[in-house]
Automatic annotation (TrEMBL):
It is an enzyme of class 5 (isomerase). Its EC number is 5.4.99.-. Keywords: Isomerase, RNA-binding. GO terms for cellular component: cytosol. The lineage of its organism: Bacteria, Bacillati, Bacillota, Bacilli, Bacillales. This is Pseudouridine synthase.
Amino acid sequence: MERLQKVIAQAGVASRRKAEEMILDGRVRVNGKVVRELGTKVGPKSEIEVDGVKIEQEEHVYYLLYKPSGYVSTVDDDKGRKVITDLVPPGARVFPVGRLDYNTTGLIILTNDGEFSNMMTHPKYKIQKRYVAKVKNIPSYLAIKQLESGVELDDGFKTGSAKVKMKSVDQKKNTAILEIVISEGHNRQIRRMVEAIGSEVIKLKREQFGFLTLDGLNTGDWRELSHKEISKLRELANPTVPPKPRGKKKKK
């Protein structure tokens, strides 16, 4: 379910603020009835008319993409760099759920469902993301423990708890491979966390988002999320909401 003014704006009829004015002026009908309340929510099957003209709602789509390096996680870029929306099918006006840095690879979701995107990115829902980072300057045991308990970033933000595992070490090159699991998503967070303990990320990949992985995909590949996966992600973000009842299977 989406707010009525948001659906009108997404359909390209008007800006969200202008859509709110239209609702208050009684110019909008939902299923044949005039609606004047801004908090009204509508579903994908609701018939919406603005000034007597029916609007077409976009069907929600959900893509899982294996982002390559050299792409920005935006819809367009004023510097002319390649954008990840070019890697998924054209048609629906999708946007990335959160961001991965220009040089970071790995799993990212794209959708046109704003409510779903908010559930996946808002810190209060605590969706875990697992990264693998190759770092320069091998972190000490104490530094790893600092990452796990939370570190202060360069802007004063204190990160929450994390799970950190040292996967391998190359003493000659003074590098290490770290596996880091966080449930936040601040700008360049993993890179800044590593910098806070005196190391530097050389290579970074997101391997898991919630229960989703990159299994079966190569760099640049994408696939649609199944209805089951979408429902499971929603439940993961809001486990207090009981699952929808299912009909009984007919006996053969």
